[in-house]
Specification:
alpha+beta; 3-stranded antiparallel β-sheet; 334 residues; 2 domains; 8 helices
């Protein structure tokens, strides 16, 4: 049972473009009454809510953008993949909210706000900087908005996984760890999602760019989409065994780990065990996987929805038990 998987494309450099004339005036106007907090750009629950929007909602958003005209992305295809499908594909692959890709497409290259295919073509084909070797020099293998979405998703998911495994990213960004941004501001990320965003772009940029701009556009787009966050609210520190997570700090049970990667849609709070699991809000069972024990949420296979989306109610054997009848039904991704 491999609990953590690192995303691919780690060698693909991502070059973040500074905000400029590509932005729409509305992007620099905050649409929320709450104050900007550089320590929390977007809560982890919302950031990793990959089921929060479906392809139809993303397509409708592009058809009727917040700028009172359709975005060219509504009909644009790369490598035969419609832009809305490229966003959903990357969101599902890396368990990230589709809003993440919409926001970065606008803040990096102003793509959502463009009514017609923009110039130069690199703004689209290398939207997130993956494959940019030097000014005017590009890797053709990484061309296309669909490839760029995958590269962006891989980079952000890799940071979330590094935080879950090591506490911080290679750049030193982690939950509760104070670092200095490129514009000289002390930032102490309140959650893994914020730390991952600063690893990707270590700039506060209040009022004009950086992670302030991500926060501002997120508010703008979330309002347009009527997105209010994941069902059940944010989960930082409150996720029970079997619940979704992006980092171990999201899980409530002491000693828990957050299993992430393709085998764990949305992340999975679990706990290593040697036969018994702690009694808590959720009944769990010490399941045997590849000679290791992990606590998984117990489920009823006869219930209408025994497990959360992406997981099935399956029968497993108890860890360290010699009795072949010692089994239980748990929620797991087969």
């Amino acid at each position: 049972m491999v609990l953590f998987a690192t995303c691919g494309l780690v060698g693909a450099a991502c070059s973040k473009s500074p905000p400029g004339s590509v932005l729409q005036p509305a992007d620099l106007v905050t649409t929320t009454d709450g104050p900007f907090n550089p320590d929390e750009i977007v809560d982890t629950g919302s950031f990793t809510d990959y089921l929060g929007l479906d392809s139809d909602e993303v397509q409708t958003f592009l058809d009727h953008s917040p700028y009172d005209y359709p975005s060219f992305l509504s009909t644009y295809q790369s490598n035969g993949v419609l832009a809305s499908d490229a966003i959903i594909n990357a969101a599902e692959t890396y368990q990230l909210n589709p809003l993440v890709f919409l926001v970065r497409a606008e803040m990096d290259q102003g793509l959502v706000g463009e009514e017609y295919y923009p110039s130069p073509t690199s703004r689209v084909e290398y939207a997130f900087g993956c494959g940019v070797i030097a000014p005017g020099q590009y890797d053709p293998m990484l061309a296309g908005f669909d490839v760029q979405c995958d590269c962006l998703g891989a980079a952000l998911r890799e940071s979330l996984d590094e935080i879950a495994q090591n506490g911080t990213t290679p750049g030193g960004w982690g939950v509760g760890t104070t670092e200095t941004s490129l514009d000289g501001i002390l930032v102490t990320p309140a959650d893994a999602s914020t730390a991952a965003l600063y690893q990707y772009l270590p700039l506060v940029g209040q009022g004009s760019g950086g992670n302030w701009l991500f926060w501002s556009i997120w508010q703008e787009y979330a309002s347009a989409l009527n997105y209010v966050g994941p069902i059940g609210g944010t989960m930082t520190g409150n996720a029970q065994l079997g619940d979704a997570c992006a980092a171990s700090t999201d899980c409530a049970e002491p000693g828990s780990i957050c299993a992430t990667g393709a085998n764990y849609p949305g992340g999975l709070c679990t706990l290593q065990c040697t036969g018994q699991c702690p009694s808590g809000q959720v009944e769990s069972f010490c399941a045997d996987f590849q000679s290791n024990g992990y606590c998984l949420a117990v489920c009823n296979p006869n219930a209408p929805t025994p497990c959360r989306p992406g997981y099935s109610c399956v029968s497993v054997h108890q860890y360290m038990s010699t009795d072949p009848n010692d089994g239980q039904n748990v929620c797991f991704d087969e």
